[in-house]
């Protein structure tokens, strides 16, 4: 757009200048035409003059003035033409400059100044046109006057011919001037032709400029359209943003309205609960009254229908007794079979545990035996070292005694030799001390090596490091042995030198004292023996070092074997741990099956007990009716007149009225009574079908029934019938308050409400993130939740045995939040089969092992909400996958204990947002409403 503006200004200026030039050229052409017409008139009036006209021009003085005026007018026209040429050249130069160098600085001026300049230029053009028109008018007027004067005064001219004969020369000059005028008109015509050619070229240039201008205008229009589209898009975006703002405001208003409605609904629900309680009380009173009335009516009816029901009662009793006997026999048989199977399972488990214990004991004994062998070998090595030290001590003592004898023999004569021998003894003692120190060091190193071996046997991981240390100690011992050998060789060389000196001194002494020659020979012999003994001791030392090296190699081999044995033991231990883990998993599965069967058996037992109670009540009522009918049986001849009590049947007739009725009508009445009693046999058939299904279920789970029977007996002995009373009461409450489907919340796993529930469960951020990721994956199954809003086409694959999440240390409020808010979100996914198990962990450990119960998603125990006494297990399995067989082990569940050591939960009943102390006092919808109110309170205050 910025580049288009100066180009447009240049094009506008060029068009204006072209229009001005066109106007100027058209005006010049017009005036040229007018001049040519005028000159043609003049020339027609001048050429080929008649003698009368010549005389007339010769004798008229006004003719000169006219010609002079015409000549002056032609000069003016010529000057105007020159100016127009100059203006045209300037315009062409400006156009070429615009085409080459762009717009002039004046073209960037404002539109107002350009309009003013154009108006000034137009005014000047109109002025020039007015001048030219005035001059032409004057010239025409003069010509007309001249013609009139010619017609009026011919006679006067004839009279004055003689007066103007002198002016013939002037006439000739005037003819020359006329010739000049003709030449000028020719030049004007040529110039007009050139101007027409220039005008045609200018028209071509104008056409090119117009095409360029049209192209530029087209480009400008396209850019304007683009800009308009962008502006429209911006306006649409603004409108969308404003629309979204209005929608958000509307949603906020609706949210406030819904919150107010929820508050109103909570108030109305409390009011309705009170009204329902009042209505229930009224209904109970009405029921009691109706029962009293029904009892009265039943007593009257029983007295009338005893004769009809006797046979039915007898048959029913026989059938019921037979069925009860059969059912009791089947039940006892199945229970005994289940007890046997349970005993077999327990014996197999005990035998497996004994085998594992025996295997562990055998492994430990082998380990202890290897340790004992190593200790015995180390003790043998220590004994061998001690023996070698004793031998060395005896040898040193012998050497000392022999040297003492030699000193006694040559004490007086060879003091120098004695001093030398004393020095040698000191050196030998120092060497012995060094050797003893080295032996002690070796013993200490052996003890350290034994300690390291023991540590290796205990830890099994530092064996390689200790072996490296032993190798280093071996290298150090070898280096020390090499050093001792070097020292011994140096000492022997020095001793030989000293012996040579002694021999020289003995020779000198022999020359001086021949008496001591034999003693010198003895000394030499003794010294040779000492050398032999030293050589023998060196060989012994070398042999001992070799044996020590061999023993160290054996120790290293035994340590390697011990390491291999330790690895084998570790592998066996791992396999045993895996087997134990599998056994625990199978035991967990068995316990879960047992608990599910137990709950099913309890429900079936409750239903059976209720149905048996109903049947027993009906049987008792029928028996009372039969007895009353037998007591009040009437003969057909006797008609009681004084029967003022006249018991009314359901049809409103007394006994006398029934007896007086015809037989057809009485039979219809009896059929009606029998049809009223007809619902008993179908109910009995339903009971038999239910009992048959329970017996089949017991047959399918025969291996678990003995343990269940024992647990039920222990529970019945401990709880005294509360197990049956509590589910019946819960069932009655569910029947009163409605047990419809669980209402699903409006949020998702990734919402703020889920984060609040996890924050109330634990303060550990890593646990919260782990549980939240697991729930999000299960919610998005079979897909994968996107990362940071990016779309993903990956597919999550669940194993065949499913996936399990275990949660511990949960408060009752957090448990209810999981059951009523998060579990329904997972159950919305049709591709998953979700099972939830909750467990109460507040009791003692021993009682918990014996009385561990799996509670359903709707049942809960009232407990102190500040205590974390609940644990939960969520098992998720693919709905398409078949049920996992019992042989496949379950994977290790995601075990997430809570770190709930902070302040109490805001979802607890002590918070100002809670209205009820426990979740057991309300139904599913009311509990969901309470938790949603608490979450809303946390959302507003957080």
From TrEMBL:
Keywords: Coiled coil
Keyword Coiled coil: yes
Biased composition, class Low complexity, residue ranges: 893-902, 910-926
Species of origin: Phytophthora fragariaefolia
UniProt feature, compositional bias: Basic and acidic residues: 152-164
Domain of life: Eukaryota
Coiled-coil ranges from the UniProt annotation: 206-296, 364-540, 566-632
Start and end residues of each stretch annotated as Disordered: 145-169, 881-928
PANTHER family on file: CENTROSOMAL PROTEIN 2, CENTROSOME-ASSOCIATED PROTEIN CEP250 ISOFORM X1
Protein name: Unnamed protein product
